[in-house]
Amino acid sequence: MGRIDVHHHAILPEISRLMRELGAPFTIPWSAAETDRVMAEHDIDVAVISNAVPGDFFSDARRAGVFHRAVNVAVAEYVAEQPARFGLLSALPMPYVDLALEEVRHSFDVLGADGVLLVPHSGESYLGDPLYEPLFEELDRRAAVVLVHPMALPGPAAAQVPYVLADFLLDTTRGALSLILSGALDRYPDIRFVLSHGGGFLPYAATRADLLAPAFFGVEPGLVKRSLDRFYYDTALTGASGLPSLLSTVGPERVVFGTDWCAAPETAVREVVAALNEPWPQLADGARDLVDRGNALGLFPRFGDTSEKACLRDASSFRLSA
Predict the structure, then answer these.
(1) Biological process GO annotation list (predicted)?
(2) What is the CB-side half-sphere exposure of residue 265 using CA atoms within 13 A?
(3) What is the pLDDT of residues 160-186, one digit of tens each?
(4) pTM of this prediction?
(5) Which CATH number fits domain 3-304: 3.20.20.140, 3.30.1360.120, 3.30.1050.10, 3.10.20.30?
């Protein structure tokens, strides 16, 4: 059985058009043919598609809601054509909480989404902020899978260091620490959080955080390290320099395969696959299969059911309009 890619983007033509029309901050080249080729060459059977755009980029709630609905519907239509190969993590228009809750309901109940994507912050508010409480209550009720996907940090980036090189990792780390230190991670135990890019800096900075957090936040010593196993960590853009440390810190049972295609080039996909094929002792005795597929099946069990019923979606069952 092949790999399940839990961190996979698809900038479909409709999405690219909307991004240009609305002045969204970026667009990325994508084609179905290239995606099929990359998946085949790297033994990827399933890709769970997500797309990240910060809701507060938009000047008003209506525009944010329309854009996110259109993005999610476009991906759902694509997934419906090959439901055994693709899944959907819906984007949510935060910080507009009411619209985000509406999008959660539409995504799960109408589109049949497999989970959602959240950016770690909305403006200056990170995931542990009270802003997110109503949303997390609903996601916890649904035992939802939530991919935490970074964006540029609040405030200007360093001119000499492009934000994708370091700021993205810090954004994920801030989001995870905010969940831990605010107590949100404990208040919503049924949400399954997946941290992008090996968890940013979190696995490697956990001891530092534990040494400093009690004095700053009054939390119990060791809280951060004890919380590491409440997250999953995808392998996107980790490679041989990061993967062994990640596996040693959190264990292979918390690591899931991810590529960041098509935002990351095929060389990045090739690098992480090569790293996973190395004879790391942490990947012995079936652990490699857990990372490649097994852990993801725990999050997305429908991909383990090959029956026609489990794999059939009716593209006409939801409204394909914004």
Answers:
(1) secondary metabolic process
(2) 1
(3) 898 899 999 999 999 999 999 999 999
(4) 0.94
(5) 3.20.20.140
